[in-house]
Amino acid sequence: MSRVVVKPCSEFSLTIDSIAPDKSISHRSAMFSMLACGTSEISNFLRAEDTLNSLEIVKNLGAKVEDDGITIKISSDGIKESSEILDCGNSGTGMRLFCGLLSSANGHFILTGDEYLRRRPMKRVTAPLRDIGAKLDGREDGDFAPLSIRGASLKAFDYESKIASAQVKSAMILAALRADGVCTYTEPELSRDHTERMLKGMGAEISVDGLKTTITPMKELLSPLTIRVPADPSSAFFFAVATAITPDASIVLEGVTLNPTRIEAFKALERMGADISYEITDNRYEPIGNISVKYAPLKSIVVEDNISWLIDELPALSIAMACANGESLIKNAEELRVKESDRISTVVEGLRACSIEVHEYKDGYKVVGGELKSAIVDSDGDHRIAMSFIIAGLRCGMEVSDLDCINTSFLNFFELLQKITKVEIS
Ligand code: S3P
Question: Which helix (H) or strand (E) holds 227?
Fold first, then answer.
């Protein structure tokens, strides 16, 4: 699957109940099962490359994994040293959270990833973990994978993070669960909170007060997880944007996590004028439900707060900005530069190829709304860039190349897209 040609679409009205399961929650379900006494049962696990890599690592660490194709049952009697190199593939979440989990485990572990992941910064987790006694190393003094970890005893900490990152927070919470005293972690803005919710649900002593999380080390193993992974709002958002840029279109996206730290991009699209409503239908670890989106003419917005709540959706939101009336601005989003690609560059280049005026800044960009024109865009191996520009193609036609990356997060993306328009994949 190396390139796709997407045709413009006309109005549609759809209900989708098969958006890809949430990636963040799937990774965590597999990893956290290793902290439980008994068997965790996970259904609707995301069977995409990133999360299957985490599941494989969990197996390599000695967990028993039974999979009947519907429910994955995981039981573990402690993390075991592995003779395998643990391959996180393309996943920063996988690598950073495993750093936290393994820093206190008995044994020696090697974590690696694909060419993109080996270029992403790891010091954000290796440095604070080393400060509490973890023995981690890697290229450039622990900044780049492959990483080696030798489990060690960890000291209690009060850590104030400079970045709002759920990956760093989660790595430190996992370390804190095995530290020698009560720990606190403070972040500059609240980042996604699946780790806190899920571990609390498993019986861990974690309390959150504003931006400060207090973690009491585990005295015994936690209760197993029983979870049906909700649909991923980051994946659902591509179809929300598809709807918001197609006159008279409407869509209902079912079974999505409505965790407030994950639906900020939908709120931004609402601020742009799209007609969006939310219906909570379930609550298991976090609120889950349906998101309805209806087309309305879009206006420009400034996005500068709670950036970590919509960081993954900014490329797709930028497509809506390109179709809006006026100049939209994204600020405080320097983190975009260290995602699966430098997403400031890839979005700016892609939009320019589509004849949209864009101004690039260190921490974001300005998009001047106009008329998207058909172009040829390369994803740079980044799934969210590939899917964002494919969605742009619904407006004007598009050719997008380097598509295998979509398998890291959204296996049925094209199947769902074909409900809206004609796509030719080669
Ligand atoms: C994730 C956190 C975010 C996000 C990533 C998934 C997670 O990264 O971009 O796709 O599951 O914790 P940061 O925490 O580094 O911002």
Answer: strand 226-228
